[in-house]
Amino acid sequence: MAKGDNARLGYQSSVGLAEETTFGTKVDSFDYLEFISESFKVDRESRKLESINTGRSFIKRVQLNETVEGSLEAEFNPASDFAIKLMKQAFGGTVTSATQASSDILHTINVGDMESNAGTSTSSDVKSLTFQADKGGTVYDYVGCRVNSFTLKAEVGGMVMMTAEVIGKSGSLSSSTPTAVFSDIIPADYLGVTFALGDSLGNVSAETVQSFEFSINNNLDGEQRGLGSRSRNIIPPVRREVSLKVTQRADTTTNYSQFLAETISAIKITMDTTQTITSSTGSETYQCQLEFPRCYTKGPAQPEVGDAGVLSYDIEYEPISDNTTTAYDVRALVYNATANYF
């Protein structure tokens, strides 16, 4: 058959993730997650040489810098090791894991520098990720990957969605044949989402919102290269930005007053699957909580009138950290059955 006479199909695809303790060195032990879309790819810059050659046509061309980039979108599942390891890399810090009284495991995911993040004195720092993408039967490996931006969001009537934008070191065809195994737990949806706000994390009250969107942007520097290689040498994170937006019906002036007064609020968002953890001796469920201890309300916090219907506004919060070594702008608490993520 000639090229193009056959076809590969998207439903035959899978994406696997593994943690690298050496930047850019493939690890062949993968976790898998059902996904909506992925766009991992290798690209190279090309240049036609401008040399004068007695004619009007270019006669020489070269390939230069290689880039590995891509995105992934999936329903968020706190029971999935793929999802939690992806979040862990995006946050860049340590993970502490503790068995609870009912035998479920609480994992505290902290923010950090993507370098010094070993969970215990005997575990290793996770420097980057390997992604293995089976694209309808053709398998590609992408190594030295870091998460540039990570987003969780939900709205009424939908699932909690997770998206990640990734930058990597290099990519190649793989000789492996993936065997994808997925969690039996159904991902979180809007019915398990609660939004709570107060003056401290220990004193928050539930509020009614119609949507939320949390993003962490690591501002990775993807232009650090060296002579003798097409690939990136390092992918350092610069200043981290954390953002949070919610949509809420406009029924009071509280948000406007908090905006004017520069009030600091604490916010907790829970994404609960409502399914009991398999190892639990009680009724604990697979869930993830996002905690923001210090949030400013970003203006204008006033509704716009465009029709005769219900007024609402999009409120943007600015989470920031305190000026101490143990402070954080965001952290995640995950309850599931995995022993640890060291």
Key phrases:
19 strands, 46% strand, mainly beta, 342 residues
What would you note in describing this structure?
- By secondary structure, the chain is mainly beta.
- The protein has one domain.
- The protein is 6% helix and 46% strand.
- The protein has two helices and 19 strands.
- It has a 19-stranded antiparallel beta sheet that branches.
- A hairpin with a 5-residue loop joins strand 9 and strand 10.
Instruction: Please work out how many helical segments DSSP would assign.
Output: 2
Q: Overall pLDDT, averaged? A: 95
- Count of structural domains: 1
How many β-strand runs? Answer: 19
How would the blueprint of this fold be written?
Elements: E1 14-20, E2 31-32, E3 37-38, E4 41-48, E5 61-75, H1 81-91, E6 92-99, E7 105-111, E8 128-135, E9 138-155, E10 161-168, E11 170-173, E12 193-200, E13 203-207, E14 211-217, E15 241-249, H2 254-261, E16 264-276, E17 285-298, E18 312-319, E19 331-336
Antiparallel strand pairs: 1-2, 1-8, 3-5, 4-5, 5-10, 6-7, 7-19, 8-9, 9-10, 9-11, 9-14, 12-13, 12-16, 14-15, 15-18, 16-17, 17-18, 17-19
